[in-house]
Amino acid sequence: MIKNLRKKLKESIFAVLPITIIVLIINFAFLRLEWSLIILFLSGAFLLIIGMSLFALGSDMAMIPMGESMSAKLSETNKLWIIIPVFFLMGFIITIAEPDLQVLADQVYAVPNTVLIVSIAVGVGTVLVLFVMKIFFKIKMKYILLFSYALIFILSIFVNKDFLAVAFDSGGVATGPIIVPFAMALGIGLATVRSGKTSNEDSFGMVALCVVGPVLAIMILGLFYNPQSHVDMGFVPEIDGFSGVVKEYLKAFPTYFMQVGIALLPILLCFVVFQIVLLKFPKVSIIRIIIGVIYTHLGLTIFLTGVNVGFLTAGKLIGGMLAAKSYNWILVPIGMVIGAVVVLAEPTVHILTNQVEEITGGALSRKAMIVALTVGVAFSVGISMLRVLTGISLLYFLIPGYALALTLSFFVPPIFTPVAFDSGGVASGPISVTFVLPLAVGASLALGGDILRDAFGAVALTTMAPPVTVQLFGLVYKLKLAKVSLRQEEKEYTQGAEPMDTGKEPVDIDTEYVDIDVVEE
What we know:
It is a single chain. The chain is mostly helical. The protein has one domain. It is 78% helix and 0% strand. The longest helix is centred in the first third of the chain and has 43 residues, at 35-77. It starts with a helix and ends with a helix.
């Protein structure tokens, strides 16, 4: 356990350090924030590292095993009338518990918080049922996504334009640190039992649907509610030295400790019921899961405290101060740099990339996934800053972006599509919500723009970019593999030799996975 914690700690340091350095460079080059605010940000970065490490360790020990075992036992019953309501209920419960949703709900004053959050929870529960139907009836993920996004963009014609960005952002916000590891584990457990193996496209796509569900739910809600263009991202606290910084964190910690506890409690209750009725885990496994839940609770509490107290304040201030400059165009390149490093600090990104590498046997390496996500999110945050400066409609970017992503799904190996759309969900995690969105809001406020139309949508663009970039990587991968195969055939033909019998079935790029290192050689 200590060895694993050290590994997680090392990963967290390398994830958080880049954005910390970038923010410090921006401050000393352009802004000159007060030292108390710099200390607030740096202490937030430190808490981020500790929180991410404990959260990742806890997810490995508790959240993922619970999700996989629960969904596997359910699917073994092979009774849809049992599986469907239970999956809907679990999706509803974990969504109600997601801390990030409260951040979004507090900004939409025309809709009561409970109505907004319950609507999103119904959307997530519904798409979990859709995922079950996909697995049982062998429906291709690309067709589900094509239909879903077609419906979304048809609805966008009728929804109040002030509500559009909120609806698209809700999908990214909903896939936060509670939902992602548990939903991914549910999907993998279900796919494993149904197909008898985990190295197939059915193992992924759950998070992608958890993005789609809330967008559709909030768009339907938007047909009945009209939001106001009033957004309050909170005031910048007046901090008196180091003691003031400590007070800010001590004031926030109990709130997030309680929120995370409430978030985890329904999941634990579901697990207890499953343990009594179906699972029957031995005592050693139960103790390990309990320890993992404690790590998850403490880690996520520390993480959210550091993010919301340190990062949200810094994001809003930096955005506002840069937008007030005569050369405010610099927001675009700075946004791209921030986007590139922010995605590395998202805890769920590392959970996804590790699971992708494990499930595909290294065919999709963690390193390649990180590169594709970094490039995609960098461009998306740059576009978000451009929208703040120019007021360009969000749909001008989302429609062609998703059109390209859905078109690519017909040309890349099947595994890439669900992984790519899952990546969009995990890239838009709590750091995007509490740093990138406040950055856009701060800039929009300084420019006197329309907050709901210009600033909101930053999370939606972050969600859109990875499906494009990861699938472009998949297209390059497929072309490279085809080129290698062609060279091998030419070599065998010129030598007049029969193809070497390896005793293995020939690889079909559409169904199997080949190690990328072999392709490069």
